[in-house]
Write a sequence for this structure.
């Protein structure tokens, strides 16, 4: 188990409390002294899955223990379950991006500032202070999603009626995302068939991105950047045509 406190994957963040403070919040007072207790921290919101499992113990007879104090057994690792919807790919992508940003972009002066803040306030390493800020969306950075194996939206998933429709990205991007990078594959039997994108709530015909068929029966690959809000829903408007190909994939996002 890491020494810096709790780790949350999904829509929570690195904890800033010391381990003993975290454990005392977990209602262990009813446990008789001398018993070893198995519990969890970082329970995922709206789920029965456990992000981190730990063991704590009271004093009264344990080697090196002080009577009445809670201790953590010396596990040096944690193993959240990476499968299922409780461990979204966006959490892993955000973590990878944050680590890379610390390694390649944060200056030595900035690192010293994080280390100073961690030592003064929370007794945490500066590295973990930075990761916590990054996972909360407080650090502006681009997050490469990785290498998706399939499209997020195919032609059959989209409404092609010439009107603005919602496109829900909440299962793909995190709540910290402020803008998303989309890639589209478009093809039709004629030129100038368009699909446009905008932030949900916008109404003017100025601030939007788009893709179009420049040549008939030739597939075109195009990118678009779209601002997203906290609900992670954007809007699209696809021409009312008999598209041959209209596929979309999220390549990444900006926190």
């Amino acid at each position: 188990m890491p020494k810096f406190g709790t780790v949350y994957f999904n829509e929570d963040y690195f904890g800033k409390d010391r381990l003993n403070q975290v454990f005392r919040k977990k209602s262990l007072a009813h446990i008789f002294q001398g018993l070893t207790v198995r519990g969890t921290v970082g329970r995922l919101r709206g789920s029965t899955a456990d992000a981190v499992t730990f063991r704590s113990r009271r004093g009264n007879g344990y080697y090196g223990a002080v009577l009445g104090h809670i201790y953590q057994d010396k596990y040096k690792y944690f193993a959240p379950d990476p499968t299922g919807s409780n461990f979204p790919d966006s959490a892993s992508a955000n973590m990878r991006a944050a680590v890379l940003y610390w390694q390649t972009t944060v200056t030595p002066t900035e690192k010293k500032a994080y280390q100073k803040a961690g030592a003064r306030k929370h007794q945490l390493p500066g590295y973990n202070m930075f990761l916590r800020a990054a996972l909360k969306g407080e650090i502006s950075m681009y997050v490469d999603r990785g290498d998706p194996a399939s499209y997020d939206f195919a032609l059959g998933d989209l409404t092609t009626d010439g009107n603005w429709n919602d496109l829900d990205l909440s299962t793909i991007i995190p709540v910290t995302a402020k803008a998303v990078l989309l890639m589209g594959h478009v093809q039709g039997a004629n030129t100038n068939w368009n699909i446009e994108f905008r932030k949900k709530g916008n109404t003017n015909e100025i601030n939007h991105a788009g893709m179009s068929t420049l040549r008939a029966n030739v597939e075109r690959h195009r990118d678009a950047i779209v601002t997203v809000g906290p609900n992670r829903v954007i809007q699209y408007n696809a021409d009312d045509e008999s598209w041959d190909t209209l596929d979309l994939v999220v390549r990444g996002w900006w926190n």
